[in-house]
Predict the structure.
Amino acid sequence: MNFRTKQFLRKRFTDYYTSSQLDLPHDFTRREWGFIFFDELPEVVMRRHKAFSRENEALDYIRGMVPAHAYHSAAYYEFPGAGTMKEKKWQGADLIFDLDADHLPGKARSYAEMLSNVKSETGKLLDFLLEDFGFSEDYISIVFSGGRGYHIHVRDRNVLTLESAQRREIVDYVSGTGLSTDFLFKPAKHKVYDDGKFKKIELESSRKITSFEDGSRGFGWGKRISKYLVQFLRDISIKDETEAQDQIVQLMRNYYLKKPNYDTIPEDIADQIFDMKKENPKIGIEKIAQEVGVHKNKVRNFLMTNDLLDYKREATIIFKKIRNISNSPETLDRIENQGIIDDSSIFDAIVQKAIEENSINLGSAHTDEPVTADIRRLIRLPSSLHGGSGMRVVPLSLSEFKNFEPLNDAVVFSEKMIDIEVIPPLRPQNSIVEMKGKSFTVTEGKNTLPEYAAIYLLCRGAAEYA
């Protein structure tokens, strides 16, 4: 970024800050502040350990210094301007979640799609915070980061003094870390009694989601799983049979390939099974079990975990069962409102899919876990500008979040056409700019764009002011 570009950006950021209302964070006098300035870009130098005692002092500083990036601490301190963390004397911190599109699985085809995906993930996290943790809307703030995601601030007094390890447990919960079907369910119980010459087995209590015990109608992950199961059963039962069976095949294959196999089979018998399947791919489980002298359930698990099972045959049987269940309102009610689940292996596969689809992607695990656990973290100032995009860091209420369109609502600069020089090599992600419902394709060299699109590329370091 050359001197002329920095001058231009600083001038336009100045215009924004002097004409816009800035929102200072709750209890701002107890927070540490940090800033990155244009003069030092592209080198990132964080100027922190700043504190403000009055609103005008903070506003005058921002409007006078015009930072490229402005931050405040999630934490509250007795002496926020002290030069070391120990001297600041930590007094608590908001619970912060940083959802970044870069951390989501799969590759988005565009910036717009990337932001749409991370907005969906943010909505899922909000549901966890409101429903599972019971936080009031009054203590939850949503902020579009101005870049690739959203920040959620929780100021409930019950979380303010949580240590890092306790905050990590919250991340583990919303990301489904360590969650498994074994943990979620209380197994079915059977009783055995004599019936003449033979022993008879009778079901004493059905397999049940643990959070539905003691007459409860379910809560937390258990309730999420029961709702997902019912919806899945209803959706798949009305599909074309071939389409439904293909979905079941994929579901089962994914489940068993990920599932640990504790039914170990001796290596020589395993080799024998591999050879039998190679010679006759259609050979049945019972035939293999007879030949190798191993129980058919162990053979079945071995074939599944080694992707050797004929899932098509299994899927046909399972689809018929699902249709029968879906046509029984009583069975669906037992699942949704009592948490009673059949022992069928297909339910374990659906439950695993429910965990994957409901868990939140934060960082490498899912949400940006280091941000949530870091009780001294700096986070972007809502209503400031993001120096890497030129877009506004937008504070949002829950109702505003639903209809928020970042590539329109966070764009603050004008339609005035300006010239920029796109720097080679042009990266693919910078070759198309989508903002305010328009799409602009740029090439290396001189380009003329609306100011908001030009500033986006200048801030990204993809162009210089011409």
Remarks:
- The chain has a mean pLDDT of 88.
- The radius of gyration is 29 Å.
